[in-house]
Amino acid sequence: MSTTAVSIPLPTLPAGWTAEKDFKAIASLTPATKRNVEPVGRHFLAFARRKRHHRTFSEDDRIQAQENVKKVEEDDSGDISEAEDLLMLQRDAKDWKGQDHYAVLGLSKYRYKATPDQIKRAHRKKVLRHHPDKKAAAGSTEDDNFFKCIQKATEVLLDPVKRRQFDSVDENADVYAPTKRETQKGNFYELWSAVFESEARFSKVQPVPALGDADSSKDDVEAFYNFWYNFDSWRSFEYDDEDVPDDNENRDQKRYIERKNNAARKKKKTEDTARLRRIVDDALSLDERIRKFRQQERAHKDRRRVEKEALTKRLAEEAAKAKEEQDRLQREKEELAKVERAEGKKVKEAAKNAAKKNKRALKSSVKDVNYFYEGEGNPSPAVIDRVLNEVELIMAKVDNEELAMLAAKLNGKKERGEIKGIYAEVVKRLVGEGKIKEEEIKHLI
């Protein structure tokens, strides 16, 4: 190895410095020692590597980048390793809303369960593999579309709000409910637990009750289905919103798109609620525990029914003689009531006929005095109607007994003054009792 001589000038002495006056020896110099000095450090190693393999700086950087990618892939080959789909690598970065962010980062098997640390590690691994500078150094002519997809996926998944919006519409994380045939052939609890565990990620209330097993109590099973029938979901569907323009010139268009997005969210929310309700209905109908509980309840009811029938029979036998006596007394009572009803009917008919007679007497009393008409000749039909209406108003406000007394007073009276005085007395009493108003009667007083 060649030796390189480096010339370094000594510092300049201060002005006025003299050795005789300013120098003071403190100790003597130690004897010189010969030592071997070896160059070390990462920069020397890089220099030695380039010299050994006859590489330029760019060639060495490219090869080192490839080795780093391989090392990262080997380190992360366990939990975040996933084969890349050729179609996914050819995605258009502008269509970022349509991409599966978890698949882009190789986290398809984790999805909403992926931790922030796993997302960061997956991002680092993808960047080392698909960074445009690394590809350019490797001689690749591919565009950077997929790299932009990686960056967008990381941006969405590391932002709690954006990730929640994406998880709200991530159908790839859904576990579809098994059919009736699949449930009958398989294990109900394993199949349906996966379904409810998938749906539980949308619950505002945590933790979510588990489906349980065949030994779960009735209270636990009822609590489980009550929870799902009253499920409170945070799912919002705003990830699928149409982009709203940011410019201020299209305010009407902006408001229109916002209304359209809100309507679309409400519709999807309603459809999702109905979908979940069907899932719970299907699970309930296929749950053997529900059948078991119903059979137990039915058996309990049957036992109670048999006991009740036995008690009823015993009581019926004990009460047989008493019932015969009660029937006899009841027949006598009914016969007596029948006689009383017949008598009461006759009394009512008599009272009704008397009331009709008394009403005719009141109408005849005003007719006999020409309906209190003061002019010559006969009164007009309008006058007659007004007088009769007032008479009928009085008849409507008094009971049958008062009506009979009034008819008795009017009986045989032919003088207009006497008849009007009798009516005036009755009207005054009814006005005092608040049954009629004074202004309602004008011709009878």
Report the strand count. 0
Morphology call: elongated
Radius of gyration: 53 Å
Largest sheet: none
The total of helices stands at 18
Strand content: under 5%
| SSE run | HHHHHHHHHHHHHHHHHH
Distance between the termini: 148 Å
Helix content: 55-70%
Structural class: mainly alpha
Average pLDDT for all residues: 84
- Segments where pLDDT lies below 50 for 5+ residues? none
Key structural traits:
445 residues, mainly alpha, 18 helices, 0% strand
A few lines on this structure:
The protein has helices at 19-22, 42-53, 57-75, 86-89, 101-104, 116-130, 132-137, 145-158, 160-168, 180-185, 188-199, 218-229, 251-286, 288-318, 320-368, 381-397, 400-410, 416-432. It is an all-alpha fold and 445 residues long. The chain starts with 18 loop residues before the first helix and ends in a 13-residue tail after the last helix.
Topology at a glance:
Blueprint: H1 19-22, H2 42-53, H3 57-75, H4 86-89, H5 101-104, H6 116-130, H7 132-137, H8 145-158, H9 160-168, H10 180-185, H11 188-199, H12 218-229, H13 251-286, H14 288-318, H15 320-368, H16 381-397, H17 400-410, H18 416-432
Helix pairs in contact: 6-8, 8-9, 15-16, 15-17
